[in-house]
Amino acid sequence: MWSLDEGGENQAGKNHMIWGIAGMLVMVSVWGIIGLIENTFGIGRVGGTDVSRLQDITAPANFGGQ
């Protein structure tokens, strides 16, 4: 910030900032597209991880060598 009027290294810093912002925009766009697809086709999970089916799981009769 102190040497903005000088040349050289500040151009490389500006390029890093621009590419960083561009990368964040790409990530947010992909996140939005995935959300749109989930909402359109109804394939998203409501409330996080779906663990409701874990109650229905039973171990096989010979589980654990019994």
What's the gyration radius in Å?
Answer: 25 Å
Name the helix and strand elements from N-terminus to C-terminus, one letter apiece: H
Number of strands: 0
Structural class based on helices, strands and sheet pairing: mainly alpha
Number of helices: 1
Q: Flag low-confidence runs.
A: none
Instruction: Please report which band the strand proportion falls in: under 5%, 5-15%, 15-25%, 25-35%, 35-45% or over 45%.
Output: under 5%
Sum this structure up briefly.
This protein is mostly helical. The chain has a domain of 31 residues.
Structural overview:
- The protein has one helix at residues 9-41.
- The longest helix is centred in the middle third of the chain and has 33 residues, at 9-41.
- It contains one helix and no strands.
- The mean pLDDT is 77.
- The protein is an all-alpha fold and 66 residues long.
- The chain has a domain at 12-42.
Protein traits:
single chain, 66 residues, mainly alpha, 0% strand
How do the helices and strands line up, and which of them pair or pack?
Blueprint: H1 9-41
